[in-house]
Amino acid sequence: MKVLLHYAAGPGLAARLRALPGLDLSICADADEAGFAAALPTTEAIWHVLRPLTAAHIAAAPKLRLIQKIGVGVNTIDVDAARARGIAVCNLPGTNARAVAELTLLLMLGALRRVAHFDAETRAGRGWAQPPALQDSLFELGGRTVGLIGYGAIPALLAPVLAAMGCRLIYTARTPKPDAEGSYRTLAGLLSDADIVSLHIPETPETRGLIDAGAIARMKKGAVLVNTARGGLVDQVALAEALRSGHLGAAGLDVFAHEPADPSDPLFALPNVVVTPHVGWLTTGTFDRSFAIAADNIRRLGAGEPLLHRVA
Known about the structure:
There is one protein chain. With 312 residues, this protein is of the alpha/beta class. The protein folds into 2 domains: 2-95 and 283-303, Rossmann fold (3-Layer(aba) Sandwich); 97-275, Rossmann fold (3-Layer(aba) Sandwich). Helices cover 34% and strands 16% of the residues. The chain is built from 11 helices and 12 strands. The chain has helices at 11-18, 33-39, 55-59, 79-85, 97-112, 115-123, 153-164, 187-193, 213-218, 236-245, 284-303; strands at 2-6, 24-28, 45-48, 66-69, 88-90, 145-149, 168-172, 183-184, 196-199, 223-227, 248-253, 273-275. The protein has a 7-stranded parallel beta sheet, sandwiched between helices. Strand 9, helix 9 (213-218) and strand 10 form a beta-alpha-beta unit. The longest helix is centred in the C-terminal third of the chain and has 20 residues, at 284-303. The radius of gyration is 21 Å and the shape is globular.
């Protein structure tokens, strides 16, 4: 079966993938639009990462039978167009949970300790020349109330670590979770009570813009926002204004409303923001777990067996 990975795989990953049995695998960098267009007519399965997969792409792939998301969120796939053609869409829940949980913790710590600022200042030779007022904006994670919006695989891994570090945990979800670490809150209650708000929900029409100007206004003065979920959950203009005004103390962001992020984004000019380019999921462990299931789904497709984690 002809499988196309739409991602710029490094040499180690490419070698491991080409060693998988039973695959006729091609790799096309996600920035190579011409190469992607040329491969689509003969492709039977796409392993999709981040570059949006549109209805036009799907229409250009007459042999396509499976779109396999390497990750969880399918908001970058035109699922309706796939469904109209009878093309299966699958994702990989849980395979990147440990990696994202670890980066979430890193961004929390980086925001509280102004790591991006100190990194730049140290490289410029000004590490020991900081204004004394900066001392008043450096905080520890222990003892703080962390609010988790959503309680799936990532918060389930992250919450016990935060508790062990001395954090008080609260969370909100569609329904209370019997085994959750911490106490259930409504969204409004969480926003008003948390020192750190961390997002762990998919971007859907219902959740898009959830953290808008009104939600940010309900957050504690000096609170920290961390987003390793989807950029569209947050009104970035309102976030930048709250960070600039001092209503929010800091933010740690791995995702943005438009990706790749625009270097002129006002958030990037703020010293109380630490950012990464949607790499929360990106570890060799995620790759190993993800492509093992993706390869099994190719086998299942060829054998006529039910697919794992089918969402459409």
